[in-house]
Design brief:
Layout: H1 14-38, H2 44-61, E1 64-69, E2 80-83, H3 89-97, E3 101-105, H4 114-120, E4 124-126, H5 131-145, E5 150-152, H6 173-178, E6 182-191, H7 209-217, E7 222-229, H8 236-239, H9 242-260
Parallel strand pairs: 1-7, 2-5, 2-6, 3-4, 3-5
Antiparallel strand pairs: 6-7
Helix pairs in contact: 1-2, 2-3
């Protein structure tokens, strides 16, 4: 697939665009009520079921089709999942396939409504400018990974999705300490009509959340592909080396994006 270097002209009729905004906020309200009323009394499995259904419905409202490849490579035990990062939508895309805990930058916690929702779902927030806080988060991750899978975005920022920036290795230490597998996810958005890579969902620069949401709703013709890679394998010195794990995941994602998005 080749890259689409500029966002296409809006293809959503105005009536559908307005209706979609109404459906978005109605769906967000439903999510808030679910978190307030049902989650305090629900089992972990029931919570995951609610999260998956809510995320699938959100993708449908935004006109995003989900395609998953090689998910059978994921282990049946808890694991660390390292993914490239394009959009705020990434979390909901991944949750629509398999609900999982996330590590997100601390700014997300301050988002109106969505930040609160993320916190209720067990998101771990990290201050990127504090190495001391990062070490605390790694310890928290290591404890959680013994029972729950966690997804990280090691770039530390989002991109337009054509390439992947260098991975910060510190969070991979959580998998080393917990002695759980480290897996890789390559994530990419495409235009369903042309099959070309799309920058429409990219949440970069000074773009605000509402502006990004509007951009996607104006172009409700997207497909997102999740390509999973099996757990990293190698000698003990490699799989217990956070820098090697980071480089290994980065190389897998870079290879996928080079083949499919350029």
């Amino acid at each position: 697939m080749t890259s689409q270097t500029h966002n296409p002209q809006a293809n959503t009729p105005i009536w559908l665009y307005i209706t979609s905004w109404f459906l978005v906020w109605l769906h967000v309200l439903r999510g808030v009520l679910t978190l307030l009323v049902l989650f305090p009394f629900a089992s972990e499995q029931v919570k995951k079921s609610h999260v998956q259904r809510w995320s699938k419905r959100l993708l449908k409202i935004f006109g995003i089709q989900l395609q998953v490849r090689d998910s059978e490579s994921l282990p049946h035990r808890s694991f660390l999942l390292a993914s490239n990062h394009v959009s705020w939508m990434d979390i909901h895309v991944i949750n629509s396939f398999k609900p999982i805990r996330f590590v997100a930058k601390s700014e997300v916690e301050k988002w109106p409504i969505f930040g609160w929702m993320a916190k209720q779902l067990g998101t771990v927030f990290i201050r990127r400018d504090s190495s001391r806080h990062a070490r605390h988060v790694v310890g928290e991750m290591a404890t959680a990974l013994k029972e729950q899978s966690i997804c990280i975005f090691p770039e530390g920022t989002s991109t337009i999705g054509k390439s992947v920036q260098a991975f910060k290795p510190n969070l991979f230490e959580g998998a080393v300490l917990a002695q759980v597998p480290a897996c890789t996810l390559a994530l990419a958005y495409f235009d369903r009509k042309t099959g070309k890579h799309s920058e429409v969902p990219a949440f970069v620069g000074d773009m605000g959340l509402l502006g990004s949401m509007a951009n996607i709703l104006k172009n409700r013709n997207l497909k997102v592909e999740l390509r999973f890679f099996p757990p990293a394998t190698g000698g003990a010195g490699q799989i217990n080396d956070r820098k090697w794990l980071a480089q290994h995941s980065h190389a897998q994602i870079a290879g996928y994006l080079s083949e499919h998005c350029n």
